[in-house]
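Page 42, continued from yesterday. The earlier attempt failed because a stray header line got pasted into the input along with the sequence. Redoing it now with the clean sequence only.
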Amino acid sequence: SPADKLEEPAKVVDQLEKGSAYGKVPQPAGHEKLEWNTYRRDNARSGSTPETLPRKLKALWNTTVTAQEPTPHGRAVTPPVVAEGKVFVAAVDDQQVTALDAKTGEVRWRHLVGGRVEAAPTIYQGLCLFGANDGWAYCLRASDGELVWRFRTSPEERRLVAYSRVESPWPVPGVLVNGGVAYFAAGRHGKTEDGIFVYAMNPFTGKVIWKNRVDNSKLETWYDNHVNNLLVGNKEAVFMDQLMFDLKTGEKSRTWYKKRSFGAKR
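This time it went through. Structure tokens are written below.
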């Protein structure tokens, strides 16, 4: 007899989920502009700082974040970021973000999510923002790890298996905060699973400002073959692979910054 017809995946209606800390994020005291609050410190991913370091450095503390070892497909932990008196790091395969006291190394909080966290969090005005391979973008209260909001990027409820993990076809590799707006991209490749979705939103409320889609299903030229990666930003636009997106409208155009080594891949 013929096989039963597969059901269509359920469409996602409510993408924003508010947490217990929604609307309850105090502004941090003594926020330092020179903090290393995002991957490679700044939105250009420069990996540099104007701070002056002493000639001799000494270790203040060390701690174990995860018992997992690096695997052939990636590292065990993300690069750390430092802000607001804490060190923030994600244990990739443990699917959790940990905050440590910057002076003592003591664990302040841990937050478990539904998928691998492959990129360092971004800390912004009391918020801890990051993405995961479960298809959600997360915003936590940086002081205690309580959920402010999370946003489901997938247009429908669908799963696949990657590196022995059940994941979303629309993973979120990280969040960029540029000019007070949070930007992130969700997806694996412009030619798979409806492409890559790029969002701009209010980091405090999770309200979407604009959304754009990268669809390379009809590949015209070799340089239309786009993959998702950490976003890079400046005062004019945010960049992903060889595309640039207008900060206010999300309108996309092609750029050759990648060929000129603008920023860095994770």
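Notes: The chain is about 0% helix and 30% strand.
Reminder to self: strip header lines before submitting.
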